[in-house]
Specification:
Elements (H helix, E strand, L loop, with lengths): L2 E7 L13 H9 L14 H10 L3 H4 L5 E2 L10 E2 L3 H8 L11 H7 L4 E5 L3 H7 L3 H4 L3 E3 L6 H10 L10 H19 L3 E6 L3 H5 L6 H22 L7 E5 L1
Helix pairs in contact: 1-11, 2-6, 4-6, 9-11
Length: about 240
Amino acid sequence: PMRFVLIALDGLRPDMVAPEATPNLINLAAEGTRFANARSVFPSETRVATPSLITGCRPGGHGMVANTLFDASAAPDRLLRTKLIEDVATLARGGESPLGRPSLGERLAAAGLSFALVSSGTAGAARLLHPAAERLGLFRWNVEDDTGPTAAAMRDRFGPTPPHAVPNLPRLRHTARILLEHVLPELRPDVTLVWLSEPDVSFHWGGLLAPHARDALREADAVIGQVMAWRDAQPDAAQIVIGVL
């Protein structure tokens, strides 16, 4: 059976993919296909684009329209910040998810297939990417998780999650360890989504050409290289597809 590993480098611009900055991504593209005309949805904000990725719908279909939004029926007295898991829960109005369409994890489960999420992004974004993880008994881990059995199990095995930093290199490396030492070799999901918070974090705190942003991009590219090396070492390497978003 085929396995798929999808790696998202949050905020990466296509014109920044270059041999010096992202050698592993360049090599991956050279051995496969590059979708040069791919475009994001509008508005191209993280918690609008991620639900589109995971549902296959434009924002008008899944219902998330901004990173920060006003919803008078859910919270008439304040803005809701969808990076916060509490505000995502508010938008869900007591349900499992605020999304108006089924997620990828749900669609795969209905077909007897498994989906796992490993994320160094925000807790709210992780919940939107895999809202049904608990109900389906599937794996979802995010660097901001501090409660629940999955967070406890990863903390016991891999130690506490490093604090947030700019560039966010310690958290990227911690995320890569959980992916490469637990999720891929032990859980063996049919589809794994790896969400990396860089280079987006560093872009916000210094701009596209800041030295720390370049360091962040190299570290994110290194994770791609690690996943490629893991794939090449597997007996079913020919059935493992790596995609970078």
